[in-house]
Specification:
Structural class: alpha/beta
Oligomer: single chain
Strand order of the largest sheet: 1-2-3-4-5-6-7-8
Number of helices: 14
Helix content: 25-40%
Radius of gyration: 31 Å
Length: about 500
């Protein structure tokens, strides 16, 4: 992509015709908005609207038109030089210049004035002569989608992608002002699900006192936000859907609040305050009777009760086979430092891996057939499965074979080759790292790697990965490992087969 403009967390403040045809009033709007933007620490641009009115409006409608917009456009006309001065003022104030051209000549004007971002209005979203001109401009493009069908949006996405345009989409409702019941905020989520690789925004026309909509937009995943702006005076009245600098300040603060409330998409470790709060409500494990050193502790030997002490065994850690390594008196908390807790049994390692794999499949939106065979490869034993191994889901194995291969985050599959099988990998989710005959490969969703017979290959993933293997027929005795110790193992020692993982039929 030639133009790598970043659309994320961009605010568009649309001046539209609220400059009222006055250069000085337009400059005042820019100058009063700039400190509000910088004070809130956001990245924002001022947007103009360009129309070549002498050709944009039909000659018979230049006077006395019954179209309510035409007279407003004519009465607020500014010259190219006026827009040039305002664009320079925008840049002088450290903001981004954005413009919506409504005709092809205005695209040329946008380029001539050095405007940085081109915005397609919803009314022009299926105006293909204008869209083609916009694509040829070399500018990053943001396209609003009010009133369009999913088929029309799909056409736009395909067109921009084929033309290698750096673009984003905006959910928008073209009702001025937009009442709550018609905002359709779930459309943001719909667009994000259909186009996860495209930045989705929210172009707003609700009343300025509606602060809930931007907070919902943030929670739905919108990353561009647009509002109409202006300043009312004794001479100029502001419409019901445009915001003053003071209202923009409140709007931006609502955005920041929503960011804080939503937090990160990744699930990190629990907060220290959260742990303290939960520990205050948690039960600990206590000795029901005196426990001798070396005794294996049974369920009847303990009870669970509040309070829980730091370092104490809690019910979630309780399992059979725990050994007391010192004397515990009756009603004494069982502290982990005085216990020998056995490793997780092999079956539990497999069960935990099944749960993680199901979650990854759900996140990747990958559905499995009702009949499939699952194989867990654990080349150095089940206790080391989370470090070395992979999950193979066999869907078809005839003269051709199809599998899904899942690696949990941090898993590695050792170097090996096949004498009879040729296979092709295609990544569906996550990032796959491979080494093929000594050459390092990094594969992303959609990437393909062919592995021919006799070719050494190994793979691993830091993120966790799901990829499809399409191959010739799979044979159980056709994997030959560089580590000869693996080759010596019987299949049952390095593989666990689950016939129905919903019922743990191991």
């Amino acid at each position: 992509m030639i133009n790598d403009f970043d659309f994320n967390d961009l605010f568009i403040l649309d001046m539209a015709n609220n400059h009222q045809g006055s250069l000085q009033h337009g400059l005042r709007i820019i100058q009063e908005l700039a400190p509000v933007i910088h004070r809130n620490g956001v990245r924002a641009g001022i947007k103009f609207q360009f129309r070549q009115l002498d050709t944009f409006i039909h000659p018979s409608h230049r006077t006395g038109s019954d179209n309510k917009h035409i007279q407003r456009f004519l009465s607020t006309r500014l010259s190219k030089d006026d827009f040039r001065i305002m664009a320079e003022e925008v840049k002088k104030n450290g903001l981004i210049t954005i413009a919506t051209p409504f005709d092809e000549e205005s695209v040329d004007m946008l380029v001539e004035l050095g405007i940085e971002v081109l915005k397609i209005a919803s009314a022009s979203a299926i105006d293909w002569p204008l869209i083609e001109k916009a694509a040829d401009s070399g500018k990053p493009v943001i396209c609003s989608t009010a009133g369009t069908t999913l088929e029309q949006i799909a056409d736009l996405v395909s067109f921009f992608e084929h033309r290698r345009v750096n673009f984003a989409l905006m959910h928008c409702i073209s009702i001025y002002p937009t009442p709550d019941e018609k905002l359709k905020m779930n459309q943001i989520e719909l667009l994000r699900n259909r186009y996860p690789h495209i930045v989705i925004g929210f172009s707003t026309h609700e009343r300025p006192d509606n602060l809930v909509s931007i907070q919902i937009a943030v929670s739905k995943g919108a990353r561009i936000f647009e509002r109409h702006v202006g300043i009312p005076t004794d001479e100029f009245k502001l419409n019901d859907y445009s915001s003053t600098p003071e209202q923009i300040d409140t709007w931006l603060k609502a955005y920041r609040q929503a960011q804080r409330i939503c937090g990160e998409l990744k699930r990190g470790p629990a907060l220290e305050e959260e742990i303290e709060s939960l520990n205050a409500l948690k039960r600990g494990v206590y000795a029901r009777r005196p426990l001798k050193e070396g005794a294996e502790i049974e369920r009847a030997d303990v009870y669970f009760a509040m309070p829980f002490y730091q370092g104490q065994l809690h019910p979630g850690q309780w399992k059979p086979g725990i050994i007391a390594q010192r004397l515990f008196e009756r009603d004494e908390p069982l502290m982990i430092e005085g216990l020998m807790v056995p490793q997780e049994p092999d079956k539990q390692v497999i069960f935990d891996s099944i749960h993680q794999a199901k979650a990854m499949l759900n996140e990747a939106r990958i559905a499995l057939p009702t009949d499939f065979r699952v194989e867990f490869s654990h080349h150095y034993g089940i206790p080391n499965f989370n470090r070395v191994g992979a999950i193979f889901i066999e869907c078809i194995n005839r003269s051709y074979c199809k599998k899904l291969i899942i690696q949990l985050p941090g898993q590695f599959h050792p170097s090996h080759y096949h004498k009879r099988k040729e296979e092709t990998f295609q990544v569906l989710y996550g990032v796959l790292e491979m080494e093929v005959e000594g050459r390092r490969k990094t594969l992303y969703p959609g990437d393909i790697q062919v592995v021919q017979q006799g070719v050494w290959h190994e793979f691993w993933s830091e993120t966790g990965v799901i990829f499809e293997e399409v191959s010739t027929t799979h044979f159980n005795d056709d994997s030959f490992y560089e580590d000869k110790e693996i080759n010596k193992l019987s299949p049952s020692k390095r593989k666990t087969v689950v016939n129905h993982w919903g019922r743990y039929q191991i």
